[in-house]
Specification:
Layout: H1 5-11, E1 26-30, H2 34-46, E2 50-54, H3 57-66, E3 71-75, H4 83-91, E4 101-105, H5 110-119, E5 123-126, H6 131-146, E6 158-161, E7 164-167, E8 172-175, E9 178-179, H7 184-195, E10 201-202, H8 203-210, H9 215-220, H10 223-237, E11 244-247, E12 251-254
Parallel strand pairs: 1-2, 1-3, 3-4, 4-5
Antiparallel strand pairs: 6-7, 7-8, 8-9, 10-12, 11-12
Helix pairs in contact: 1-2, 2-6, 3-4, 7-10
């Protein structure tokens, strides 16, 4: 049985006593339909997450800038400041551009999903959805972003090129010893290029690997999606970003300068 609105809002921000997350991530749910927001908060709280809710984009941005969450569940069709506008604002701010975003929306067309991914969302879930699917998608996004939900045994592999190091197990990138704040998509993009260093990767190949979409969907995504993320990744890597070479008419290649 679903909780009442008041019961669910009370649950938001609390951790269930029998939840087994040693360091629960904090999630902001941005949804203008109060009952849906309460239901999402209830389901995520049951899984051990700390959850807060916001009913408008303006309230959400205020809350995010006060205390940046670990993940945002964002409705695209918000009144006033839309979900798309909220996402653009977050991606344009260095303080929030690395926060993972799960878009939740009633827009079900393939074109809508592609548009959401191109805006910078890490995943896209259409209404109505299964509460279990929502939890699994949140788990997966946070695991990719922080490696915090299921520790990798054996520590994962370390990919290195000069001062650049990628810890594939901990999902951490460092440059000259300092951590580089990458989004989950940027991390997967860099990991893919470094794992295949010296080999040119087409934009479709990179879409399949870094965006976790099938080849059919990858074929329909605009190539500018990859170009935009490569541009952002290069900017964050400083001079090491020059090692991501453009192969005109085809794609990209990671090649460390000698």
């Amino acid at each position: 049985m679903s909780p009442s609105r008041s019961e669910a809002v009370e649950l938001a921000g609390l951790q269930r006593p029998d939840a087994k997350r040693e360091h629960p991530a904090r999630i902001l749910v941005v949804e203008d339909e109060a009952e849906i927001a309460a239901l999402i908060a209830y389901q995520l709280t049951r899984e051990g997450y700390r959850v807060e809710t916001a009913l408008t984009g303006t309230v959400a941005l205020d809350a995010i800038h006060r205390d940046v969450p670990d993940l945002i569940v964002l409705d695209r069709m918000l009144p006033g400041l839309s979900g798309d506008e909220v996402l653009r604002s977050l991606k344009s701010d260095p303080a929030t551009q690395g926060v993972p975003i799960l878009f939740v929306t009633a827009k079900r067309e393939q074109r809508d999903r592609i548009d959401g991914l191109e805006l910078g969302a890490d995943d896209y879930l259409t209404k109505p959805f299964s509460p279990r699917e929502l939890v699994l998608r949140v788990d997966a996004i946070l695991r990719r972003a922080h490696g915090e939900l299921k520790p990798v045994t054996g520590g994962g592999r370390i990919l290195s090129a000069g001062p650049l190091r990628v810890d594939t197990g901990a999902h951490i990138v460092t440059l000259d010893g300092g951590e580089v704040p990458l989004t989950p998509t940027e991390f997967r993009l860099l990991r893919t290029l470094m794992e295949r260093r010296g080999r040119t990767q087409s934009r479709r190949q990179l879409l399949s690997e870094a965006w976790n979409v099938d080849s059919g969907t990858a074929g329909r995504l605009h190539t500018r999606t990859v170009d935009m993320h490569v541009r952002r990744l290069r900017g964050k890597l400083g001079s090491a970003g020059d090692w991501i070479e453009t192969v005109r008419g085809f794609g990209y290649r990671f090649q460390q300068s000698r």
